[in-house]
Amino acid sequence: MAMSYSTSSSPHATSLPAQALTKEQRYRARHPDRIRAKNVRWYALHRAYELARSRRWKQAHPESVRASSRQRRRLHLAACLATNQRWRAAHPDASAAQHHRRRARKQNAASTDLRLAQWNFIKAVCGYRCVYGGRKLQRLTQDHLTPLVDGGAHSMDHVLPACHVCNCRKGVGRPLCPVQPFLALEF
């Protein structure tokens, strides 16, 4: 009677009759735990090599990576959304900076190089105050001197901290009062 070896954990095991399997395939089918432990040890010793190899493969096969990511997200949507929500709650400033960069890219802004560290530097230089009203607030919004919809850039020399009220009042118009952009500042 021909036995067939098949384990979902081993990519080398197939549903072929036992006589058709090679010696290595039979060993892998009978000892998946040993193979897994051996692979874990090898990976621990060669982690940098494996990460570089994985990075090269991902760069060479972006369509496969995107398809795999979409499939994983579809299968685990609730978990992905919960993870994203926890990250946004734990990192509100980084989340806001990410949102602003994405918004600037969607508006085809000339430059989208403003990073969270630069935004924090700008707020510190202004004393964590609204440049228009002078109010000191925990949460300041990014006011673009030239609005993104009018071709303004999302960069360090083009963004000022403003309170929500002043930023809404300014809208897509000119600055409410003369302000000196941070052209001369070195980050």
Outline the structure in words:
With 187 residues, the chain is mainly α. The chain has 2 domains: 23-74, no CATH class; 92-170, DNA Binding (I), subunit A. It has helices spanning 23-30, 32-45, 47-60, 62-75, 77-90, 92-106, 116-125, 164-170, and strands at residues 141-144, 159-162. A two-stranded antiparallel ribbon has the order 1-2.
Condensed summary:
The chain has helices spanning 23-30, 32-45, 47-60, 62-75, 77-90, 92-106, 116-125, 164-170, and strands spanning 141-144, 159-162.
Q: Give the strand order, joined by hyphens, for the main sheet.
A: 1-2
Q: Helix amount, in percent?
A: 40-55%
Number of folding domains? 2
Mean pLDDT: 83
Ranges where pLDDT stays below 50 over 5 or more residues in a row are 1-8
List the helices and strands and how they pair.
Elements: H1 23-30, H2 32-45, H3 47-60, H4 62-75, H5 77-90, H6 92-106, H7 116-125, E1 141-144, E2 159-162, H8 164-170
Antiparallel strand pairs: 1-2
